[in-house]
Design brief:
Layout (H helix, E strand, L loop, with lengths): L1 H104 L1
Keywords: Coiled coil
Length: 106
């Protein structure tokens, strides 16, 4: 019976050692998994930040381009208006001159 108790004790101790080794291995795997997850999160955050920065830069460039085009359009309209007014004034002068010439003949 003592030998049986000794065998049982040895088996129990062996099982305890195996379980302790398993705990150590599982703890190590858990820490590795946690580190990998943290690294993946950092990579995702870095990528997202980079993409946000790129999108902001694109928006700023597009806004600047739109403002430039809008100003060019305004300038072109003003120039066309100036040319139109000058042409109308020239036509009025021509009409007056022709009217004066007709009245002078009559």
């Amino acid at each position: 019976m003592i030998q049986s108790d000794d065998d049982s004790l040895r088996l129990a101790l062996a099982e305890v050692r195996d379980l302790q080794r398993t705990v150590v291995v599982l703890r190590s795997e858990l820490e590795t998994s946690h580190q990998e997850r943290q690294h993946a999160v950092q990579d995702a955050l870095s990528f997202a930040h980079s993409e946000i920065t790129q999108l902001r830069d694109t928006i700023a460039a597009l806004r600047t381009s739109l403002e430039k085009l809008t100003q060019q359009k305004i300038d072109a309209l003003q120039q066309a208006g100036t040319v139109h007014h000058a042409e109308v004034a020239l036509l009025h002068e021509t009409i007056r001159a022709l009217r004066d010439a007709l009245e002078a003949r009559a």
